[in-house]
Amino acid sequence: MSFASRNHRDPNVTYTFSSRPRPVDSRSRHGDPAAERSPPRYGNIMYDRRVVRGNTYAQHLTPATAQPDTAEAQRQQAVRRAVARRRARERSRPVTPAALQGRKHVDMQTDLYLEELSNIVTAADIECQTDPFLDRPASPLFIPAKSGKDVGTQIEEGELFYFDWEVQPVLEVLVGKTVEQSLLEVMEEEELACLRAQQRALQELRNNELAEVQRLQEQERRRREEKVRRMTQQKQALKEQQEVAEKVAARAFTRRHLADLRSAAFASLRTCGFLYNPVERDIETNFLPWLLEEVKERLEEREAARALLDALIRDVTRKRLTTSEEATQPEA
């Protein structure tokens, strides 16, 4: 495929050229020679001013022979630039942060000298009826002004994309990727099915273990209750057995105590003098004291007679001793 361009000097002369496609440098429209000599930069078509954006359904098509109004286009471009500069200034202007919850911003006077406003102008509302609006004429079609330089490109035979030959690797890649993605999805589905089956098995195992744990807990609870009941019964039996033993011991002690109680009571009464023999009591109280007195008197008389006899024997012995001594002394 070839691209042909006519010479502006001679319409009859036609020449062809070939070059690599490249984007148009937007700096060249300002007439900068350095920019024209510098290597071209690749641009994005989305930011190209020559591309019309927005809804084009309601736009009026201009005949190809109609010439755009250059002055009107420049005026609109100047208006757009002014609007863009104003928006940029508004965006760069610092903005007051939003008020906190429960508070609000209030306008206040920050001048150095406060001035009281006393002259208040009286205002009144007045209404009037206006004629209805006329139909607004249709807006003219906006055609941006042409800018930049025209560049031509020569395309030789075989330089473009050959579909039948070059689509095969792309198709192989697409088919391979599709099959690979399908295999991955199938493997993922199988893996998810295995995971679900494993999860169900684990859930069933968990439910069985939980039921077994509940059964063991219930069994342990029953055993604990049975143990407490048995311990209570054993304590009650031990208590009753202890009470029976205490009763038996008390009965035996009572029997033993009551067995000796009669004799002990009579002995205690006899010892205390409440039970006595009148003969023995008469002997003890009357006869024995009298007998003792008589014996005592007799013993005293016998002792007195013995003392008198001893005194007589002593005197006689002394007199005989004195006489014997006088007789034995020599005569002077």
List the helices and strands and how they pair.
Elements: E1 4-6, E2 14-16, H1 33-37, H2 70-92, H3 163-272, H4 278-328
Radius of gyration: 76 Å
| Portion in beta strands | under 5%
Overall 3D form: elongated
Structural class: mainly alpha
Terminal Cα span: 221 Å
Helix content: 55-70%
Mean pLDDT: 78
**Largest β-sheet summary:** 2 strands, antiparallel
Number of beta strands = 2
Order of helices and strands: EEHHHH
Strand order of the largest sheet: 1-2
Task: Quickly describe the structure.
The chain has 332 residues and is mainly α. Helix content is 57%, strand content 2%.
Describe this structure in words.
The chain is mainly α and 332 residues long. Among the domains are: 69 residues, no CATH class; 114 residues; 35 residues. Helices cover 57% and strands 2% of the residues. Strands 1-2 form a two-stranded antiparallel ribbon. 0% of the residues are buried. The N terminus is likely disordered.
